[in-house]
Amino acid sequence: MAKSKSQRMKEYRERKKASLGEKWLIQESNRTREYYKPTSQLNSKEKQARRERIRDNVSAYRKRQTALLNKTNDVTLLKEADLDEPNPLVLIEDENGVSSTSTQQPLIVKMPLISAKSKGGKKRASHALKRATNEICNLKKHNKNLKKSQNTLRKRLEREKKRNSTRDTENIRKKLLYAECVSKEIRETSEENPTKRKLAGIVVSGKFMRKYKMLTELKKSTNITWRTQAKRSKKLNHERQPRNLFLRQKISSDVEEFLCRDDNSRCMPGKADAVKYGKVKKQKRILNDYLHNILIKFCAEHTYRI
């Protein structure tokens, strides 16, 4: 009958052990270590399968060890019993005259061996203290890093405060200097010329000065009294009205009528040549002559200065 693959491999391993011994075991362990994959790199199913396999192997190994230990204990007890000399018998009579036999040496009784391992699983040492010390060390490191980052942020904040304080003081100084310069300029111009004084009063005394109640400060800094401030009018915001509106309208109507005459322009015949202005639709016209010649003709017919 042909041998199976497992039987052939078993015989091969036995031959290797007999020929090389421990050297072959070291080679095999190094070879299998190359293909080993750590548990951290496995997925959940592979982890569970590996742990179950290891658990079964460990339990089988423990059973084999306990059986081997019981067997060796039985053999040693039997050997000790065989090597001992036979115990001589002694007759002992009691008060009633009944005789009984006894031995001088104690009898050896064979009892089943109960090992400590058979009572339960292997007790593993508690690593709670080690975990606690590691956690304390990690917390100390984290606390140290936090203090370091806090110090860096505090120093950065102090630098920003100093920088901002210098910037704010510089801006405030410039604004105050600008206000002083403007007030002095207004004061000098108002003292030199009364017309300029009125103009300065009209410009300065506006709604913002009234809103923030700075008219008294304006009087102190520029010597512009409330009477000058009261003369403020809307002349600066006044829009100039166009003059001779009737004349302008008459000229525009005459120009339009002159250009629409048949001797000056020609009407386009197409329907798409119309232009719509609002709701009025007008047809396009093309000039018959250059615009310069038409202007000369218009000036000859009318008395307008164009």
In short:
Residues 44-56, 155-169 have a biased composition (Basic and acidic residues). This protein has 306 residues and is mainly alpha-helical.
What do these coordinates show?
This protein has helices spanning 5-19, 22-34, 44-83, 128-192, 194-204, 207-211, 215-222, 226-230, 245-259, 291-301; strands spanning 89-93, 99-103, 265-267, 274-277, 280-283, 285-287. Helices cover 61% and strands 8% of the residues. It is built from ten helices and six strands. The chain starts with a helix and ends in a 5-residue tail after the last helix. It has a two-stranded antiparallel sheet with strand order 1-2. A two-stranded antiparallel sheet has the order 3-6. The protein has a two-stranded antiparallel sheet with strand order 4-5. Mean pLDDT is 78; it is low at 232-238. Among the domains are: 151-230; 246-301, no CATH class. It is mainly alpha-helical. It is elongated, with a radius of gyration of 61 Å.
